[in-house]
Amino acid sequence: MKILVTGGLGFIGSHTVVELQQEGFDVVIIDNLSKSTIDVLDKIASISNRKPDYHHIDLRDKIAVKTFFSSNAIDGVIHFAASKAVGESVQMPLEYYENNISSLVYVLQEMSANNVSNFIFSSSCTVYGQADELPITENAPIKPAESPYGNTKQIGEEIIKDGTKISDLKAIALRYFNPIGAHESAKIGELPIGVPQNLIPFVTQTAAGIREVLSIFGNDYPTPDGTAVRDYIHVVDLAKAHIVALKRLLTKQNKASFEVFNLGTGKGNSVLEVIQTFEKVSGKNLNYKFVDRRAGDITSAYADTTIANKELGWKAELSLEDALLSAWKWQLTLK
Ligand code: UD1
User: Fold this and answer.
1) Which residue's alpha carbon is nearest to atom 9 within ligand 1?
2) Which DSSP category does 311 fall into?
3) Does residue 221 carry a catalytic annotation?
4) Torsion angle, CA of 324/329/331/335, rounded to 10 degrees?
5) Is the pLDDT of residue 94 over 80?
6) Which atom of ligand 1 is nearest to the CA of 149?
7) pLDDT of 269-300, one tens digit each?
8) 215 ligand 1 Cβ < 6 A
9) How far is the CA of 335 from the centre of ligand 1 (A)?
10) Domains and CATH numbers, the chain
């Protein structure tokens, strides 16, 4: 079976490619290298002993997407390729809509034209906004998006759902909570460009001396220690969930043509808990200070994973300690 992974050289994509290969799938990657580097391809090969097929294609290029699909026999698509920086999306909304939406539409059109029916979509818990009830189930209402990035995930899900109504398309949207960590080999991991916006790369860069001090955004949230709470999931657990979801479609176990699953651990941790855990596993003291809340941040989000556990037979196995230690080992390779 040959699986197309778009964005397969990115953070979650590269880990998913490795898991796919370990499950015996042939993988073909499309990546435009906008937020990744080509050496990730060799790193993947050095973990799995198999170099995936790779095409340098920008999915906004409709003709290139058409040509790719007409010359490659594909059994399923895992679609990661998208821009994901919340703040940037506020500054460049139209670029975000063009990149995240037009590429999705072109891929779906060519899947339909070439009778490829199995599709896994990278969605986000951002679609829930600040949910009224915790933990968050898949049935929690979708809140108005806080950013163009978040809107592209909501619109993306709608586009896919509509697509499944008029064709053989079968799709699963996976709503990620906060993916962190790195492969145990420390050969692949998260590669933020410039100053990291997300917590864990900022933590590891601060511990490595690249950043002077970590700013904790807000200590007056209504949480036990005043800092915001998230559900941090190890990227390898997340990657494995994609293989399970893909197999569900390939073996026709899906119960509807469009399904949605939360991918989280089910456990919430505060920023301070993350820092304490990082200090414990790394043996480093972290320099941090409290600053004002970050605009657009919510208080608390963690997943109800009951449906993913039951339907996918999947649950996160790795701990916050595992994830933070792997992120630290990865950081040490970058210094
Ligand atoms: C962010 C996005 C989310 C996206 C996800 C993955 C926002 C509002 N949400 O989630 O849509 O899907 O990234 O890319 O940006 N923090 C600090 N100091 C820092 C960085 C973060 O205190 O330097 C705190 C944040 O306030 C938050 C927590 O750490 O409470 C996690 O932040 P982050 O890693 O950016 O993820 P989210 O904001 O949850």
Assistant:
1) 86
2) I
3) no
4) 160
5) yes
6) 11
7) 999 999 999 999 999 999 999 999 999 899 99
8) yes
9) 23
10) 2-180+233-265+304-317 (3.40.50.720)
